[in-house]
């Protein structure tokens, strides 16, 4: 099941998001229920709030629980920020909070970090 300090077990139903996925900051809907699959993988995602502004070396955290979105047109509301290597960071299109996840350019698959969004 889910292996993390935070309990997200109630958010997964048949491997998909059970409820809407929304921005923590402005409550905009990012994903509709049952539109993304759950996965666990390791990724270093820049912190939403940086202590020091240093674009060449941002502070990161290891994130391991994600919603997988295979088609960018599945999103209700998402923006793309700067490209770093083979990835683009995902943001809320309304308030521009982020990164809430990342988009893998070669595979065209997007990953939304469960701890960067709310479920309701």
Brief summary of the model shown:
With 120 residues, this protein is mostly beta strands.
Describe this structure in words.
The chain is mostly beta strands and 120 residues long. It has a single domain (9-48, 60-119), classed as Beta Complex (Metal Binding Protein, Guanine Nucleotide Exchange Factor, Chain A), CATH 2.170.150. It has strands at 12-13, 16-17, 21-23, 29-31, 37-46, 60-69, 79-84, 87-91, 101-104, 109-113, 117-119. The strands form three sheets. Strands 5-6-10-9-8-7 form a six-stranded antiparallel beta sheet, with no helix packed on it. It has a three-stranded antiparallel beta sheet with strand order 4-3-11, with no helix packed on it. Strand 3 and strand 4 (29-31) form a beta hairpin. It is globular and about 40 Å long. The model is unreliable at 1-5 (pLDDT under 50).
Please give the CATH class: Mainly Beta
What would CATH call the architecture?
Answer: Beta Complex
Number of strands: 11
Form type = globular
CA radius of gyration is: 13 Å
In helices, the fraction of residues equals: under 10%
What fold name stands as the CATH topology?
Metal Binding Protein, Guanine Nucleotide Exchange Factor, Chain A
What is the percentage of strand-forming residues? 35-45%
**What series of H and E elements makes up the topology?**
EEEEEEEEEEE
Strand order of the largest sheet: 5-6-10-9-8-7
Main beta sheet: 6 strands, antiparallel
């Amino acid at each position: 099941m889910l292996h993390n300090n935070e309990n997200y077990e109630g958010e997964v139903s048949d491997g998909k998001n059970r409820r809407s996925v929304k921005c923590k900051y402005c409550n905009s809907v990012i994903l509709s229920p049952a539109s993304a699959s759950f996965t666990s993988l390791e990724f270093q995602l820049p912190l939403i709030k940086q202590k020091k502004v240093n674009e060449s070396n941002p502070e990161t955290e290891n994130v391991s629980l994600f919603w997988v979105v295979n088609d960018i047109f599945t999103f209700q509301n998402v923006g793309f920020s700067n490209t770093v290597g083979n990835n683009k960071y995902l943001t809320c299109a309304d308030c521009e909070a982020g990164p809430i996840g990342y988009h893998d350019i070669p595979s065209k698959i997007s990953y939304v970090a469960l701890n960067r969004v709310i479920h309701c």
